[in-house]
Design brief:
13 helices; 49% helix
């Protein structure tokens, strides 16, 4: 199973993290935590000295592969919440209390944190009407949902990726493909869904495409047709099957979404249920 990695920010300082699916916990880079607690330019040396002097810290340390500044992954010392509490006992830091408060809000899985942000998009003025239906609009949504959770939030991928045996748009040609999608017509329901299908095939980001693109679709439907999708009326398996077949047979997803259209675009309950369903679609 692919590990979920993240970069959090404490006082504008990055802290790398990785999600342990088996034990349902986050592991944080030990050197990054040390760096923010002591404001040191040489946190690795400080951490190694602490670990050698205090066996309890060594016992709480697990190695995980984390991204480095060169874009490659290396085995790195990581500690969980308990390890950070122990570490704080040995480091005199004026940031200790503030850091502990910050930590409490950073332990939820990425999906839960981004879902809370998605809820906040109801009647939010984040997106201006002139960019609705464009790649820039989608980038802004993605950056809002995953900023500080993924280091690539809002950034168009350069790598070619695949899922379930299907390869998405080649990363090398993705900028050109997205420009072509931006030019697609979107004045009626069928053309909007065709544009949505093409954006899904493009899959502009490394993670989080489905959640961001469904919000992008609803904004487009609201702007052009004064309608949106009531996602709570769409079965997960029906949706996934229709999207799987959409590149060669878009009629399935067109009919499925058309049957769930609603004019209640200002209904908060429909919006909230839609976000819940959207995130449910992504669960394995």
């Amino acid at each position: 199973m692919k590990s979920k990695t993240s970069i959090r920010y404490f006082l504008d300082n990055p802290i790398r993290a990785i999600w342990d699916e088996t034990n349902s916990m986050w592991w944080f880079s030990a050197t990054d935590v040390v760096a923010v607690l002591i404001n040191s330019q040489k946190p690795r040396r400080y951490w190694n000295n602490l670990k050698s002097r205090h066996q309890e810290l060594a016992n709480l340390t697990v190695q995980h592969k984390l991204y480095s500044n060169d874009g490659k992954k290396y085995l790195s010392d990581t500690i969980n919440e308990q390890g950070i509490k122990e570490l704080a006992l040995f480091i005199p830091s004026k940031n200790r209390v503030e850091f502990q408060t910050w930590l409490k809000g950073s332990l939820d899985p990425i999906d839960e944190q981004s879902k809370r942000r998605a809820y906040e998009l109801f009647n939010n003025s984040l997106i201006t009407e002139d960019i609705i239906g464009t790649t820039i609009c989608l980038q802004q949504i993605h950056a809002y949902l995953f900023g500080g959770l993924y280091d690539f939030a809002g950034k168009i991928r350069t790598k070619t990726i695949s899922k379930g045996g299907f390869t998405f748009a080649n990363g090398q040609y993705l900028p050109t493909i997205l420009k072509d999608i931006d030019k697609m017509p979107d004045s009626d329901f069928i053309s909007i869904i065709n544009k949505y299908v093409e954006m899904n095939v493009a899959h502009p980001f490394m993670e989080g495409n489905g959640r961001a693109t469904r919000i992008w679709l609803d904004l487009l439907l609201k702007r052009r047709l004064s309608q949106c999708i009531d996602w709570s009326r769409i079965d997960k398996n029906d949706y996934l099957l229709a999207m799987q077949k959409s590149p060669t047979n878009p009629s399935l997803i067109i009919n499925l979404l058309k049957g769930a259209l609603t004019s209640k675009i200002d209904n908060r309950e429909i919006f909230m249920k839609g976000i819940d369903c959207s995130y449910y679609y992504e669960e394995e």
